[in-house]
Design goal:
Elements lengths: L10 H6 L3 H7 L3 H10 L2 H10 L6 E2 H5 L7 H13 L3 E5 L3 E5 L1 H13 L10 H4 L5 H20 L12 H9 L16 H7 L3 H14 L8 H11 L8 E2 L5 H13 L2 E5 L4 E5 L1 H4 L18 E3 L4 E4 L4 H8 L3 E6 L2 E5 L2 H9 L4 H10 L14 H16 L5 E4 L5 H13 L3 E5 L4 E5 L3 H19 L1
Antiparallel strand pairs: 1-3, 2-3, 4-6, 5-6, 7-8, 8-10, 9-10, 11-13, 12-13
Helix pairs in contact: 2-13, 3-7, 4-6, 9-16, 17-19, 18-19, 20-21
C-alpha cells in the first residue's frame, strides 16, 4: 500500500496528493464530495454545477466558451484544480474532452437532491440531554489544546516536566518540533518548535493534523479512510453527540487521538459511547487563509514604550510562551509583568524565533484596550527588536585565544605570519604586540610560540 507523504497548506491539497485509486474511494462518500465542492474557487463551483447532470464528455473548446476572454486565466486555474482533485477526468480522442468523475457525480447528485442524511448515527435524546453546553465544550477544547502546547513548551527549558502523552510527543517529533533524544538526553524543543509556539491556533492545529495524517500509514491506519473521516467531521454539528460503537475499530482509535488534540470530546455510558465534535473539528477542512470563528482567548498583552509587557492572564501556557522571549519580573494571580531585554530577546533569536514573529505575537494578542492603538506595539519597541536581530546577523561570535607579552618583535612577527598562513588570524596590534587567533588553532600556536622562544634563547647562548 503506498504511503502518503505530502506537505500541504490545507486539506484539499492533501486530498489532491492522494493516489488516484485512493481518491476515487474517497468519492464513494458524499461528505467528501461536498467538502471538495465547498473548497473550490467560485468558477470551479459553477463548472461543477453545470456538469453535474451532463452525461457526455464536454470538449475543452466548449468549456472555454463559458468564460469571458478577460477571465481565461481564472478559467484555467479552475480547470486545473478540478483535474488535480479528479473531479473531472480528461479524455483524449480526436480532441481533448472532460467528463465528470462518475463516483463524484453520483454522490454529489445524491447529496444535493436528498440532503445526504446525518453524517453519523445521532445518539438518543436521553444521551443528548447529558451533552455539555457549547460554552463548556469550547472550554474543554481550549483546555485540551493548551495541554498539548504545554507539553511542548515544558521542553523549552530543563526538559519535559509532568505527565507526557506519548501520542502527542510522537507527533511533535515527526513534525520536527521536538528533538529525538539519544539514551543520555531528554526531549528538547527545536527551533521550529519555538516558532510553532508563536503561530495562531489554526496554523498550529493544521500543522499537527497534517503530520498526523501523513504518517498514518506508519501507524497502520489507512490514510484515505482517515482523511475521509476528518473531512466528514467538518459536517458534524458542534455540540451534538454521535455514536462510537458503530465505527470500525481503526476510527475508534482515531477518535481517542483526536480527543487528545481537543477536536472531539469522548463520553461513555453503561452500554455505549459517543463523541461530541468541537469548533476545532469544524474548522479542519477550511483553508489556512480562511478566518476561524474559534479563538482560544481574547487579547491579553499590553506593551509599553519602556519595554515593559503586562499580560493580564492566569494561563500557565500564555505565561510560558511569554517567557520564551521576555524576562518575567512579577507574577500575580491574574497579571504577569515582564520586560523585553536584550538578553531575553537574544535568547529567543538564538532559538530560531525571529523579531517579526515576536512583534506579530504581541500584536495578535493585544489587550482590547490597546488593540485599536496605532501602532499596537510601540515603534520604539518594534524597531529595537529588529535592531537586536540585525546585530546578531551582522556580528558572528566565535571562540578565540588572545596572545600578548611577546619578548621580541621578531617572535611576534613570526607568530603573526604563522597564524595568517593557517588562516586563523582574527586580529593583530603590532604596536602592542597582541593578536587574536581562532580557538581551534591554540595547540598549534602554543607549540609554534614555544619553538620560536626556544630558538631565540639558543641563539643568545
Amino acid at each position: 500500500m503506498p504511503r502518503v507523504r505530502v506537505v500541504s497548506r490545507n486539506f484539499m491539497e492533501m486530498v489532491a496528493a492522494l493516489p488516484a485509486a485512493k481518491l476515487d474511494l474517497l468519492y464513494d462518500r458524499h461528505w467528501t464530495c461536498q467538502a471538495v465542492l465547498r473548497s473550490l474557487p467560485p468558477l470551479g463551483k459553477q463548472y461543477v454545477m453545470r456538469l453535474l447532470y451532463v452525461e457526455n464528455a464536454v470538449p475543452v473548446k466548449s468549456l472555454q466558451e463559458w468564460a469571458q476572454p478577460d477571465a481565461l486565466s481564472k478559467h484555467q486555474v479552475a480547470i486545473d484544480r478540478l483535474e488535480q482533485l479528479r473531479v473531472i477526468l480528461a479524455e483524449r480522442k480526436k480532441e481533448v474532452c472532460y467528463r465528470m468523475n462518475p463516483k463524484f457525480q453520483k454522490q454529489l447528485r445524491q447529496a444535493l437532491s436528498t440532503g445526504g442524511g446525518p453524517p453519523r448515527d445521532v445518539v438518543s435524546g436521553s444521551i443528548a440531554a447529558r451533552t455539555p453546553s457549547l460554552e463548556d465544550l469550547d472550554n474543554y477544547a481550549m483546555k485540551q489544546w493548551e495541554s498539548v502546547l504545554l507539553q511542548l513548551v515544558s521542553c523549552a527549558s530543563d526538559g519535559p516536566t509532568g505527565p507526557q502523552n506519548s501520542f502527542i510527543t510522537k507527533v511533535f517529533q515527526r513534525a520536527g518540533l521536538l528533538s529525538v533524544p539519544n539514551e543520555k538526553e531528554s526531549l528538547s524543543i527545536t527551533d521550529l518548535g519555538f516558532q510553532f509556539l508563536l503561530m495562531d491556533t489554526n496554523s498550529q492545529l493544521w500543522q499537527l493534523v497534517r503530520e498526523y495524517v501523513t504518517t498514518a500509514e506508519d501507524r497502520g491506519t489507512d490514510s484515505g479512510e482517515l482523511i475521509g473521516f476528518l473531512l466528514e467531521l467538518g459536517f458534524h454539528h458542534v455540540g451534538e453527540a454521535y455514536g462510537v460503537n458503530s465505527l470500525p475499530p481503526a476510527l475508534q482509535k482515531v477518535l481517542e487521538e483526536l480527543a487528545a488534540l481537543g477536536l472531539v470530546q469522548l463520553q461513555k455510558g453503561r452500554s455505549e459511547s459517543w463523541y461530541i465534535p468541537t469548533k476545532l473539528a469544524s474548522n479542519l477542512s477550511a483553508s489556512l487563509s480562511d478566518s476561524s470563528d474559534w479563538q482560544s482567548s481574547e487579547g491579553f498583552v499590553v506593551v509599553e514604550t519602556n519595554f515593559k509587557v503586562y499580560a493580564y492572564t492566569s494561563s500557565k501556557l500564555q505565561t510560558e510562551i511569554l517567557r520564551c522571549f521576555a524576562r518575567l519580573e512579577y507574577q500575580l494571580p491574574n497579571l504577569v509583568v515582564a520586560a523585553l531585554t536584550k538578553e531575553s530577546v537574544n535568547t529567543a533569536l538564538a532559538s530560531g524565533i525571529s523579531a517579526e514573529q515576536i512583534i506579530s505575537f504581541l500584536r495578535k494578542h493585544a489587550h482590547p484596550h490597546v488593540s485599536q492603538r496605532i501602532p499596537v506595539v510601540p515603534e520604539t519597541v518594534s524597531d529595537q527588536l529588529r535592531l537586536w536581530e540585525t546585530d546578531r546577523n551582522r556580528v558572528e561570535l566565535a571562540p578565540a585565544y588572545f596572545y600578548d607579552d611577546f619578548p621580541t618583535m621578531d617572535i611576534y612577527e613570526a607568530v603573526v605570519a604563522h597564524a595568517r598562513d593557517l588562516g586563523g588570524l582574527l586580529y593583530e596590534d603590532a604596536s602592542a604586540r597582541r593578536l587574536v587567533v581562532r580557538a581551534d588553532l591554540h595547540e598549534d600556536m602554543r607549540m609554534f610560540i614555544r619553538k620560536q622562544s626556544s630558538g631565540t634563547a639558543a641563539q643568545r647562548r
